[in-house]
Write a structure and sequence with these properties.
This protein is an alpha/beta fold. Helices cover 34% and strands 17% of the residues. It is globular and about 40 Å long. The two termini are 35 Å apart. This is NACHT domain-containing protein.
Amino acid sequence: MFYVINLDYRVKYSEHIQNQYKVIKDMNSRLGENVNLNSRYTKLIIVKEHRSKKEREHEIMDSGRRHAEIMTKQASCTTINCLFDPDKDGQIPPIIVRQGAAGIGKTTAKKIMFDWAVGELYQSKFDYVFYINCREINSGNEQGSVADLILKNCPDQNAPVDKILRNPEKLLFIIDGFDELRFSFAQSESNLCSDPFEKQPAAVILSSLFRKKVLSKSYLIVTTRSTALEELQQYFVLPSPSELFLSLPAPSKY
């Protein structure tokens, strides 16, 4: 019975996500006008490679096409649909950090949400994908929980959150814009929470997700400007950082 109920809600949730992300606001459009997501999405490749501080500083002065040309020559590439494929040792990275130069891949997080919802991405891997907008988190002062973050994605407040959380290994959280967060992640281990229904300040909730204190078997994609990567590395375990850049000879599909 649980599976049927959960599957029914997943269909409802997927339809809601499709409607929410199929169009986006465009700065170049007329006031109140939205554009189709696919028309504004730039196809990308993933460059997996660690870089030095000097290289990241150089990135600040470089952007767009030139930056992509440089980086695609420096490391092997993969595609978005392969991010959670097992590596040569059979390990699947629990956290993917998507970083890149300003102006590159701004719609990627929403594109992942949409393509999952229409059945084109991560179907066998994730039952649910949730989007967390760091800019919106900055604007709120009230305490919340991981369950509250999930509900914000849902079409109503009657979502079976307790049932969704029973399979954390089938959940993906996309945390978009880490570099925009305006609070400290210097949280002691004792301050972190393991209960997804426990209400805490946003810094504690996100730190608990990043450090795998809560929903330890879930998966994360964190998007950030490269200038904030050091803070991520300082406070959180990042087993397999990946970098996202514009693809000049972009593939026809992910």
